[in-house]
Amino acid sequence: LQTVPPLQLAEQYFHRFPDEADPIWGNPCADHRHMQIWAKEKSCDQLPKFLVIGPQKTGTTALYTFLAMHPAILANYPSPETFEEVQFFNGKNYYKGIDWYMKFFPVPANSSAKFLFEKSATYFEGDVVPRRVRALLPAAKLVITIISPSKRAYSWYHHMRAHSDHTALLYSFHQVITASDTAPRAVRSLRNKCLVPGMYARHIERWLNHFPSSQINIIDGEELRSDPVYVMNDLQRFLGIQPFYNYTEHLRFDKRKGFFCQVVGEDRTKCLGRGKGRIYPSMNESDVKYLKEFYQPYNIALEKLLTKLDYPVPSWLEEDLQ
Ligand code: A3P
What atom in ligand 1 is closest to the CA of residue 64? Predict the structure, then answer.
């Protein structure tokens, strides 16, 4: 029997078990041996009970804002880099470890709100994300919002233009969504960001490989926009949140904004910023047709999946499938 210094030992270990080189953070509270060596001041109650996982441009900020209004719900502290989103389970932040993640949530003793949550709209389509979330937060509930995938793609394109993305400014929406695999890298990347998240059924199925359907709630983003009180009531029931918050008194349609906003006074509302509910020209008929065809197989799969999971088929999906 022979041993070597730790670094060499690690190199040999990962040479033999390359799959383990990518860490997967488990839940310390799931194993009493881990609990025994964990610092006393740490608690699994400093982890979120539910996640809003996106995808982007489906109304996730409105949902986040409405949830954060609830007295029993507490959102994560903002991140200096990604603002209200922590974006832990996808990308490089994951390698910063769970202590880094937990710092985004209050120590339970310092807060009366029982339901901690975070919203990172980039989680939805991330390949590795469901497995990682399952390992750390096996009991977490997951909230997904969906709108017409074509509309989502168009909203993303305008989002990028509004952020002065060079490619979005240079190429038309039509050029982006129809770009071939020989197109410049930046165009392909923008095309994928427009189109891939909208392949809803494929992504939801991946989450369902790791979580039971009873832990997942799919919200019709169009309903969230037109009737947020109904959606928030339904969501409170799904999350099992007490006390029940009466959103009727706290959300009001703002004619100027054209959306529901938070009531902050007798005749005053606080709406989301200019980046949410942007005004842009409607999509060209030819792009509408192109995207309808492009998304058809994904939309057929979505309709089947929603029916199987006992959700009503949203009217936009029926229209997209016509
Ligand atoms: P547009 O700006 O393209 O209209 P996300 O927060 O996930 O990025 O989604 C942004 C979209 O949320 C907006 O897209 C807007 O249509 C929609 N939305 C839904 N409810 C809203 C609300 N109450 N206020 C503002 N935007 C809302």
Answer: 6
| Binding-site sequence positions | 155, 276-280
Neighbours of 175 (CB within 10 A): 14
Give the tokens for residue 310.
Answer: 């006992």
- Is the model's pTM score more than 0.80? yes
CA distance 96 to 80: 15
**Ligand 1 close to Cβ of residue 151 (< 6 A):** no
Query: Is the shortest distance between the CB of 152 and ligand 1 below 6 Å?
Result: no
**pLDDT tens-digit profile of 87-129?**
999 999 999 999 999 999 988 776 666 899 999 999 999 999 9
Segment 137-191, tens digit of pLDDT: 999 999 999 999 999 999 999 999 999 999 999 999 999 999 999 999 999 999 9
- Is the CB of residue 260 below 6 angstroms from any atom belonging to ligand 1? yes
Residues 6+ apart with CB under 8 A from 56: 121, 122, 124, 152, 156, 159, 197
Pairing of strands 141-146, 216-220: parallel
